[in-house]
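In the previous chapter we treated chains in isolation. Here, by contrast, the input contains four separate entities that must be folded as one system, with a combined length of 288 residues.
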Amino acid sequence: MFYTVGEAAKMLKVAPSALRYYDKEGLLPFVERSGGGIRMFKENDLEWLKLIGCLKATGMPIKGIKQFIECTIKGDETIDERLGILKAQRENVVKQIEQLKAHLEMIDYKVWYYQTAQRAGSTAAIEQLSADDVPEKYKKFLKK
Amino acid sequence: MFYTVGEAAKMLKVAPSALRYYDKEGLLPFVERSGGGIRMFKENDLEWLKLIGCLKATGMPIKGIKQFIECTIKGDETIDERLGILKAQRENVVKQIEQLKAHLEMIDYKVWYYQTAQRAGSTAAIEQLSADDVPEKYKKFLKK
DNA sequence: ATATAAGTTAAAGAATACTTTAAGTCAATA
DNA sequence: TATTGACTTAAAGTATTCTTTAACTTATAT
């Protein structure tokens, strides 16, 4: 069973032009063509595209993804390299999550700040608060 | 105590050109100038820049940040709007973290896959594995 | 057989976030 | 006072990731 670029795009919820772009950039060397030159996506190709989507969504640039795909084409001699790429990306993602959690704390503090300002009717009122009025977890954001 | 653009950039670990760009885009209306036209960053301006960095790192575009900054300039009449922006961004970040965690699982599966391939000396060997050989948490990534 | 929808390519365009360049000014030190 | 390093601006350049356009072809449905 095969899918055209439009069908595959719909299933993956991306634009057909995006899939053509990935192909042009060398990310889809495994996608075969019909006699007339039309791309024929197999079920397994969609799995590859899901991995590509995962790597993309976790910040890997197209060129990095291309390197990984090229490794899989080369075969078993690149197992170490592929593992290395994935381990690095894993650490990368762990750090991104940590970073986002830290940023979330700051945003939470600001939400608390404006909720408090909302009740008081002004932001000026907050500067008057004593340290005791600030929840413990937000104290680290206070400037002296 | 004031800092020049170069000093502020060093403290925030960004390029001076980035700070000038933010200024040009209207993100730093609070930064004052010397008689000669040189930017004078106050301690409090650096706090603002940390918030800008937080919003940027969590995916808010320059224009969105500009909107928030403009609200703070307008004053107390925009407390609701600012709170709305921050709450939306908060939800945004929560979703990003969830997404990254989901992607991390897929990467973890792939790491397991290539570690197993590494031991076997080939990826072909993995396709021969029975479902029992695949850790429970990775089974959802198996294609039938 | 023919019309039509969707496919193809190359090339140009768009959006975002900066960086670099060029020409000139400011401010601190010798 | 003169030099020097860092500042200023406007404008152009860069990188990335697609999208759009134009001209043409393929494949399907009547």
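The two ends of chain B are 66 Å apart (CA to CA). The longest helix of chain B spans residues 79-120. Compare these points with the single-chain example from earlier in the chapter.
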